[in-house]
Amino acid sequence: MSADPTRLRARPGLGRSRGGLPPGWKLDVPAVADDARPLALAVVFHGGGSTAEAGLALLPAHPGLIRLAPQSLGTTWDIVRGGFGHDVERIDDALETVFALVAVDPRRVALAGFSDGASYALSLGVGNGDLVTRVVAFSPGFLAPGVQRGRPRIFATHGTEDRVLPIDRCSRRLVPALRGAGYDVTYEEFDGGHGVMPHHARFASDWIVRAVPEL
């Protein structure tokens, strides 16, 4: 591991094929993808005990959006199990592969996730703001301490009746802390439990694609 275990070093336009994605990972590339018009990319992290397939479904398909859904090595992401580790390494390698396969707009690279995956997206996004421009966090639980780079914009949602990650000790603490640290956070609460509202998911896909005003 590097001295900074949160660091993602892959960059759009500089990718190299690593021989394909790990087993179980999902990649959705729109049919319109071509080198002449780079697309947005969202890396979507599943919740604890879930799968890459479920992660991919968190964000609706969009003709301007490439979706990459990793599968955690354990039942959930390494940070929840004790700290950043091999999941980060595999994500970095996968990004190298994706950047070699398809043209990705460096202004529109996002991390997204639900529950444990939302905590992971926030923690990795804050630590890699020189790569990541937007973060989507559906029902996050925490933000792991670490180096902060850049200022990715953040969209977060949380159910007021969440019994898994109660809103009062999660998003209602996280969001003010992020805003206090200078992050632009769009935050919406909804009547409901631990889940993702369809209209929030649709908004998130479009929000990532429309990160560049002229698009």
Automatic annotation (TrEMBL):
The keyword Signal applies. InterPro entries: AB_hydrolase_fold (IPR029058), Plant_Biomass_Hydrol_Est (IPR050955), PLipase/COase/thioEstase (IPR003140). The keyword Hydrolase applies. Residues 1-21 are annotated as: Disordered. It comes from the Bacteria. Residues 102-205 form the Phospholipase/carboxylesterase/thioesterase domain. This is Phospholipase/carboxylesterase/thioesterase domain-containing protein. The lineage of its organism: Bacteria, Bacillati, Actinomycetota, Thermoleophilia, Solirubrobacterales.
